[in-house]
Structures are given as C-alpha cells and as structure tokens.
Amino acid sequence: MSEDDIDEIVLPEIDGNTCVVCGKGGAIKCYGAKICGSCKAFFLRISTIKEAVPCCSDAGKCVTRDFVLRDNEKCRACRYKKCLEVGLNPAVTARRKGCTLREKRSNVGYDRRAKGKGLISICDSNQSLDEQSVHRIDTRETQMIALISPSHQILNSTQSSSSASIQMMVNLEKVFMNDDYSAPNRLNFVYDVSGSVTEMLRNPTGVCSRVPIDFGGAFPLNAGMDDLRRIPVRVLARLSVHMSDWLRNIPEFWELCENERVLLFCQRFLSYEYLLMYYYSYKKGFNGIFLPFGTSISSEDLTTYRTLSVGSKVMLKCGFNTIMPSMKRAKLGDEEYVLLKNISIFSSALGFSDAGADIIRKAYTKYSGLLFEHLEKTTSPKGEVIRRFTEIMAIPSYLQNEAYMMNPQFGGYILCDEGGMECTLAREIFNKF
User: Fold this and answer.
1) Which segments constitute the Nuclear receptor domain (predicted)?
2) I need a surface site. Which of 2, 7, 36, 337 has the fewest CB within 10 A?
C-alpha cells in the first residue's frame, strides 16, 4: 500500500459481505457502497486525479472477465463506471479532516506506469503555474455524466448540434445539483471559504464537496429563523461550487483572461443564485420560494419574513411579482432554463476589457440564437415563439436589477458576520460586484 493510500485509511467493521463492484468477499461500507479493499484503493486513486480515464479497449466485454483486458491488465474505464453505477461517490474520497491526499495528487496522471517510476505527472515543469491551471476541467464530472448521457462532450456547439449541446447542458445541471431526494439533507458538511475566487475556479471542491443542494427535497428541515441564520455561509459555499462547475464547462468562459473570469463570477453570483431558487420553486409548483438544503419561504410565512430586512422584501417581491410569473408565462422548461442561465451570465460586458467585452457579446448572441432556434423547433405558431422568446429574454435584466438592490444586504451579512459570512470568498465577491 502506498503512502497516499495510508493517508485515507478508514477502519469500518468488516461484515463478510461481497463487493458490489467485483463480487469478492470481505466487503466493507465505504464511499457509499459495500466494496472490497482492492476496489476501495482503486476508487480512491482514480477519484483523486485530474486526468481523464481512458476508454475501454475491448468494447465493454471485459466486464464479464472481472474487468481484465486482452493484455491481462485491468480496464479502468469499465471498473470506474461500475463503481459509479453501484453508488460510489467520488466527491467524498480523501475528505477526512487534515487529509492532504487530493492536494498531493492534483497534478498526477493515471497513465500506464513504468516499473519503479510510480505515477507520471501530467504537468510540464517548464510551464508557469497559471499556464498549468488554465482550463483544467475536473474529469470526474464528465465521467459521472456518462451515466446520464452517452457522450462525454463538454459544451461546444462547433462539435455537436444545437439539440445535443442543449441536452448536454441539461445533463450537466442534473450532475452539478447532485440531488438525492431519498436521503436526508446534509448541513454538517465541511467547507473552506478562506480562499480566493481564483483558487475556487481552479478547484471548486476545495471550497466544499458537492453535497445535494436540495431545492424542495423530500425531507425539508422545517427550519426556524435560528436555523436560517446559521446556514448562510454553507449556502455561499455550495452555490459557489455549483456556479464554478457550470462556468468551467462553458467554452467562452475560458476565452477570458483569468482576472476577467474572476470578475464575471463575482458580477453574476447573486443573479445566478436567485435564478436557481426561482426556477426550482417555479418548476415544482411551490407556493413560495425554495432555498438550499430543504428550507423554504412559503406564502404563509410572508408576514414574518417581511419584517426581517429590506433584502428579504426585495427577494420576495422580485420572485413572486416578476420573475416566477415570467417563467410561467414563458412555459420555461429545463432546456430553456439552461440556455437562460448562459444568456444571463453573458448579459452585460460592463467593466471588461475590449477583448473581454467582445467575447461576452458573442457568447450572449450565441446562446440567444440557440434559444430562438430551440423555440422555433418546439413551439408553434410563430407568434407564440416570439412571445415566449421575448418573455424569457426579459428575465436577465430583472435578475440583475435584483442583484443590484440585494448587494448592500449581502455586504451587511459580511460586515456583521451573520451566519459566518465574514470570509475571504464573500468579501471578494462583494468587492468585485
């Protein structure tokens, strides 16, 4: 066993059950399913590297031979896919407090090893840190998407049809939400908001793991005011990771320089957060607003919440009176929603360089065009297409106006350290808004 493996040893009680991945005995409950020691070590190694898992060279036939390929090597692709199918969660590996395994292995590849040389680094020692960090997509998300979509293609309309691009965005949203309504909400997850936005965009899970966001889950917390005041920083952490995941899979995002990628995140964070809450509230037909982790504001709570702050009044007024009714009139579905997210993200080039502004304007035109093309294919008559398109295109301005009104409230949370909000990540978002 390597030194890295020792750093993540778990000592659960052995119960003699068989491994759900390979069928061997002596399985233990670890990472979300009962697995043997060999599969545990394999899953730990493969879920803490950045390099993509190679495709199966035997068209999946190795599964019937204990994942053994023709050259007698184990097939990593099919073995990892099986791990995901039986419920193993790559987001929870090497998350024990004080464990530095992910940091050690963040630049390690999984290519075939040369004897005595160990794992091969994928970083060029002649590159600068900035050059090494550019557009290094976390391949774990791409591999998890394989359970939903037959394609591993990251969004790129030049390589796939508009319909395929939209469907990939819908699949990405499902993966990044990570909602599991069969399990209770998690509010005790570990988070770290002491780093910068730059660091988070390079490695989102350095802030927190991808616990279910759970807008309107099956096990609501029925939280009172004290509970709500205690969770703002966890909401900040988890929604920051969600937005980072989304941005990292938009090709135009990587055309911006690093400083402007940070600026785009900070300028759009509040409107992105509100769009999430409003859409899932509208989608599930809730007579109120869903908040993360199973909490909510129902219509019966309005009298109580209106006494809290100006910020709460603004959020409720914009949601109930403007944005959610617009979504209803536009008959917004998942496909229109994911396009609306990108349109909203690229809806303003204020504060960007000439080159950055040009990238943003082109992205706005691209996703607006995709939306209109999609509506033409799915809606009739022509007048209804125009009506729905006009209704949807008005929503980004509503969201941005709300964000401007809510930013002072966000700053007040930081200044007063409400719910742990006085942190580096929140301050940078506020200062660069």
Assistant:
1) 16-95
2) 2
What tokens appear for 124 in the block?
A: 């060029």
- C-beta separation of 267 from 348 below 8 A: yes
Determine the Cα–Cα distance for residues 323 and 31; give it in Å rounded to an integer: 40
CB 49 within 8 A of CB 108: yes
State how far the Cα of 309 lies from the Cα of 418, in Å rounded to an integer. 13
CATH number at residue 271: 1.10.565.10
pLDDT 10s digits, 126-185: 333 333 333 334 444 444 444 434 333 345 544 456 888 888 888 888 888 876 555 555
In tens, the pLDDT along 82-121 reads 888 777 777 677 655 555 555 555 444 444 443 333 332 3
Both 100 and 167 in one domain: the answer is: no
Distance from C-alpha of 190 to C-alpha of 182, rounded to nearest angstrom:
21
- Are 119 and 30 part of one and the same domain? yes
- Among 158, 137, 159, smallest CA distance to 366 is for 158
- Looking at the structure of the chain, the number of domains it has is 2
Q: Same domain for 391 and 286?
A: yes
The beta-carbon contacts of 61-67 under 8 Å, at least 24 apart in sequence, are 66/22, 66/23, 67/22
| Distance, CA of 14 to CA of 27 (rounded, Å) | 7
Q: Identify which of 39-53, 209-223, 354-368 has the greatest average pLDDT.
A: 354-368
Last residue of a domain, one of 149, 170, 202: 149
Its domain, for residue 14, covers 1-149
CA angle 364, 273, 285 (to 5 degrees): 100
238 in the same domain as 317:
yes
- Give the CATH number of the domain where residue 77 resides: 3.30.50.10
Domain final residue pick, 149, 177, 196: 149
| 341-383 tens-digit pLDDT | 999 999 999 999 999 999 999 999 999 999 999 999 999 998 9
- Please check whether residue 162 is in contact with residue 202, taking contact to mean a CB–CB distance below 8 angstroms: no
